[in-house]
Amino acid sequence: MQPFELKKDIYWVGCVDYDHRDFHGYSRSPEGTTYNAYVIRDEKNVLMDTVSPGCAGTLLCRLGKIMEPEKIDYIVCNHLELDHAGSLAQIVERCKPEKIFCSTLGLKSLQGYFNTKDWPVVAVKSGDKLEIGKRSIIFQETRMLHWPDSMVSYIPEDKLLISNDAFGQNIASSWRYADEHDEGDLLRAIKEYFYNIILPYSPQVLATLPIVEKLDIDMIAPDHGLIHRGEKSVRFILDMYRKLAEQKPQQRAVIFYDTMWHSTEKMAYAACSGLEEAGVPARLMSVKNNHHSQIMTELADCGAVLAGSPTHNNTVLPLVAAQLTYMKGLRPKNRVGGAFGSFGWSGESAKYIHEQLESMGMEMPAAPVKCNWAPGHEALKACHDLGKAVGEALKRKCQEG
């Protein structure tokens, strides 16, 4: 359990959880995740964030290689969600810090999760500066990235931004730096993290980026995943966040669907052929075989969303309903949509899906397509035409920017 020195007297003392699979209610690749915590050794020794429940021993072990835990003077809680603060009570009991710093809204989280009556808690706001010796820490609130209590901590003397949830990924690795990891896998993990957690707060991302870019930074250390070091890596993640937050339409489509007796599945393939004829590549994703987070991640590269389901009890199949609900909560913007579905008796599914996609603000260039029983040539051609109409609408949208 060795600490890792990022800069002189600044150490990573976090925990790598290789077996974690369900994170914030969504799954990821089987890499697990990382709970990053950091120690600054100075005239006042500072622990920046803690770790998830059950991981306190690992943090204390790494910390013990640097100093006795009781020598920690301050604890900074950039965000009080339990993957960062689940071990806080144990750490406070062991370290007995002089002060615990959190944002003004963090006070509510602290009181809600812990018995803080006897804790030496100090609330800070944007621009507040904490002198710790040779270094200082400047706090910047980043409300709704992704909780109201979130903030980041900037150490100007080391050009270091400790960014909490912003700029992170779910990657479990023995490497600490992003430039040591496979580039394609890193990019996928960034998109997955953004599109399943940060996406609803894209306006806040775009408002925060100019503030961050004014700072002199050569390292961004998030609380999950790998650390960005050097001008190239820092610029990469800032540019990536801007691109993801802007949600400019891209000429690619995703089709998600469920099927009972393969009729809706055949309709999905027909819609895909229409997209291809329009010059829009597409990916088909069965909701039975793809987790809702995987489908959501696909939207990072897709400007069009088509969805299909058989009618079941006068509505859609449960996994399609869940996917639509999950997607709606994440508030994707600037998309084109399409809906289709088969039915035996009542036929409400396609209309329901159309209305759900439309309620997300998607442009709906064609009426929903529904098919009674098994699709024949006419129904499949209608699905093909639906895909083509969506593809052509998307191409126009991309040209408009």
Automatic annotation (TrEMBL):
Domain Flavodoxin-like: 253-391
CDD domains documented for this protein: flavodiiron_proteins_MBL-fold (cd07709)
SUPFAM superfamilies listed in its UniProt record: Flavoproteins (SSF52218), Metallo-hydrolase/oxidoreductase (SSF56281)
SMART domains: Lactamase_B
Domain of life of the source: Bacteria
Gene Ontology MF terms: electron transfer activity; FMN binding; metal ion binding; oxidoreductase activity
PANTHER family: ANAEROBIC NITRIC OXIDE REDUCTASE FLAVORUBREDOXIN (PTHR43717:SF1)
Family, per entry: In the N-terminal section; belongs to the zinc metallo-hydrolase group 3 family.
Protein name in the entry: FprA family A-type flavoprotein
